[in-house]
Amino acid sequence: MFRFRYWRSLLADESWRYAIVGGLLALPFVARSYWETGMTAGIEPIFAAGLLVGYFFQGSVDEVGRVGSRTGVVGALPVLLWMSVEPVAYVLLETVPWYDPLVPIAVAVLFVTIGSLFAALVGAIGARIGDWLSEKVGRYRPPVVARWGLSVNSRSE
């Protein structure tokens, strides 16, 4: 029986909420880049999602990096699975009798693992840069201050 308790506890954690939302924002753009090329998936959406997550998530540097890496994996894993299923299905359906069918499956698992690690690295880098930007620019600036570039402490008399 499928239990929702695990998923509810996952969503109760603020870092996973940011990671899931950021990864789901990046996922359509990563899928579109693979759909257009048929060979590669773009990492730019993963970096941009990591940048946004790092900008808005408040935590230590390690927590921000962890949230960024989770964002990268959530945003890239479905596309990586999609990319690896096509060649494996082709080899298994068009296999030569002497060819071992476990080899393409092992290669696909290795491909998904390395791709997920790379996506996690790109997401973590984006999140760290986003965290740095939030410190330089400020996370929450009033709209008037942001528009006019005024200091929060200055008053016009």
From TrEMBL:
List the InterPro entries: DUF5518
Annotated membrane-spanning segments are 41-61, 73-93, 105-127
Task: Return any one Pfam family short name.
Answer: DUF5518
Highest taxon of source: Archaea
Keyword set for this entry? Membrane, Transmembrane, Transmembrane helix
Identification of the protein by name: DUF5518 domain-containing protein
